[in-house]
Amino acid sequence: VKPWRIASALVLVLAGGWVLYTFPPVTTPYYPRCVFKQVTGYDCPGCGTTRALHALLHGRVADAFHLNAMLFPLMACALAAVPSVVRGRQPRFLSRPWFGWGSFVVIVAWWIGRNVI
Amino acid sequence: LNCPYCSTSNLDTASICVNCGRPLAAGAAPPPPTQSYTPPPPASPPSYTPPVPPRPPVSHSAPIGQGGPAAGAQVPNYLVQSILVTLCCCLPFGVVAIIFAAQVNSKLAAGDYAGAVDSSQKAKMWCWIAFGIGLAVTLIWMAFGGVAFMQGIREAMANR
Fold it and tell me: What's the start-to-end Cα distance of chain B, in Å?
């Protein structure tokens, strides 16, 4: 990966982090809202991610977990992918059959489970 | 040399199709009648440079898919895009994309190369469908003030 790509990715992450840190999603009307939730009233698997990231940036880990627990395994996967991506390669685990089917099961179970429990 | 799968014209020296990435090896599939086939020259001229160098087949729009020809990395599975589009667009179409994405590597592991390419293309298609519909629905919803509308309905239902 070329250095300017890493640099622009870092700039994007920092800018996004600043926006998320500074503006609380609950009171700021300019964040995109989940249409699925507004129409059906049920949470989608991604619902709460924005609020969870805001909470996480303010150090409220437990709040973040309650807003969207999926964020944590997702971030673990992203972190595990960083070394390969920086070296310009696709992470090995992404092309394992168990990972594809595992993420399908986890996401669908999370989608149903979070609305039932 | 025409690709037996998509009939794209390739260099005679290529081992992989520049268009679909599938192997051009003889016996992979019966090639169609080669009316434009010219046998390779016995020795390439020293100054000859191929216009399209043979390269790893992963050259679609996968952002981090530039893996080498290592096993398992030949067909982009669009798993990352599928997961992100499911979480960000919150629609069941993303789950369809995840299913096809997961099929890619299962089929590769079973040696079903053509099936894996097929699943890969379907995963890509459903990613775009989920993304397009999610984006369109969100924009329309915001444009028509859907939030206030639904809130009005909820309050009306609650105050029945």
Answer: 73
C-alpha span between A88 and B68 (Å, rounded): 10
* Alpha carbon distance B8, B1 (integer Å): 8
Q: Does B134 touch chain A (CB under 8 A)?
A: yes
Question: Is B28 within 8 Å of B22 (Cβ atoms)?
Answer: yes
Report the distance separating Cα B136 and Cα B140, nearest Å: 6
SS3 B61: coil
Establish whether this prediction's ipTM goes over 0.85: no
How far apart, in whole angstroms, are the C-alpha atoms of residue B94 and residue A33? 17
Q: Which pLDDT score is estimated for B52?
A: 53
Record the pTM. Answer: 0.64
Mutation target to probe the B interface, by most B beta carbons within 10 A, among A5, A31, A35 is A35
Task: Verify whether the Cβ–Cβ distance B95 to A108 is below 8 Å.
Answer: yes
